[in-house]
Write a structure and sequence with these properties.
The chain has 184 residues and is α+β, with helices and mostly antiparallel strands. It has a single domain, classed as STM4215-like (2-Layer Sandwich), CATH 3.30.2000. It contains four helices and eight strands. The strands form two sheets. Strands 3, 4, 5, 6, 7 and 8 form a six-stranded mixed beta sheet that branches.
Length: 184
C-alpha cells in the first residue's frame, strides 16, 4: 500500500503546475521539481546532494493497522511532506512587492499543495487532512516546512491476486461429499 500511495501522491503533487510561455507556445510545467522519500536529507545543510528546488520529501509516520477479516487491514495513515525551497532573505516589510512575493513563494507553494490534497482520494484511501505545519528556520540556503497529513487507508496487498481469486472461489463453492448411506 505504501509504495502505491507514494506513487499516487507523487503523481498528484506533479499536477501542481505553472504556465510557461504565452499563446500557442504556452505549456504547463510542474512546480515541484524533485519528489523523493525523506531520509534526513538536510541534516548537514544538504552538502553534496543534487536537488532541484522546489522539492517535496515524503515520510510515513508509524502506522497502527487494524485487521478487518481475511487479509484486509485498515489504518489512519499519517505522513509528512517536507516542502523545501531555496531561501530568499528579502521578506522584510520594506521590501518591494515582487521581492516579498518571491520570498514568500514557499508559503504559496504550501497553500497550493494543501488545496490539491484537500480533494485527493483514491479507491483505497480517503481524502488527506492536514493536521500540523512546522517551519524549520535553521537552514542557510533552504527553507523547509513539514506538513503533516492523515488519511484513512486500506491495505489489501495480502489478498489473493486476480489469478488466485478463481481458486479461492472454487474452494468456497466446493460442496462437501454427501455422507455415505447407512449400510451401504
Amino acid at each position: 500500500m505504501r509504495d502505491t500511495f507514494y506513487k499516487d501522491l507523487s503523481d498528484e503533487l506533479l499536477k501542481i503546475t505553472d504556465t510557461v510561455g504565452e499563446g500557442e507556445e504556452a505549456v504547463e510545467v510542474p512546480v515541484i521539481k524533485h519528489i523523493d522519500l525523506w531520509n534526513e536529507q538536510f541534516k548537514d545543510d544538504y552538502k553534496g546532494i543534487a536537488i532541484q528546488f522546489p522539492a517535496v520529501f515524503i515520510k510515513y509516520l508509524p502506522i497502527q493497522w487494524k485487521q478487518m477479516g481475511g487479509k484486509l487491514q485498515v489504518a489512519d495513515v499519517s505522513f509528512q511532506l517536507f516542502v523545501c525551497t531555496s531561501t530568499f532573505a528579502q521578506s522584510h516589510y520594506k521590501a518591494d512587492d515582487d521581492t516579498k512575493a518571491k520570498a514568500l513563494s514557499h508559503y504559496t507553494l504550501i497553500n497550493r499543495i494543501f488545496k490539491r490534497l484537500a480533494y485527493f482520494a483514491g479507491d483505497y484511501f480517503g481524502t488527506c487532512l492536514r493536521t500540523a505545519s512546522d517551519t524549520d528556520h535553521y537552514h542557510h540556503e533552504v527553507m523547509v516546512t513539514t506538513e503533516t497529513y492523515v488519511t484513512h487507508a486500506s491495505d489489501g496487498s495480502a489478498l489473493p491476486d486476480e489469478d488466485d481469486a478463481e481458486d479461492v472461489v472454487l474452494i468456497l463453492q466446493h460442496e462437501p461429499e454427501p455422507d455415505p448411506e447407512p449400510g451401504g
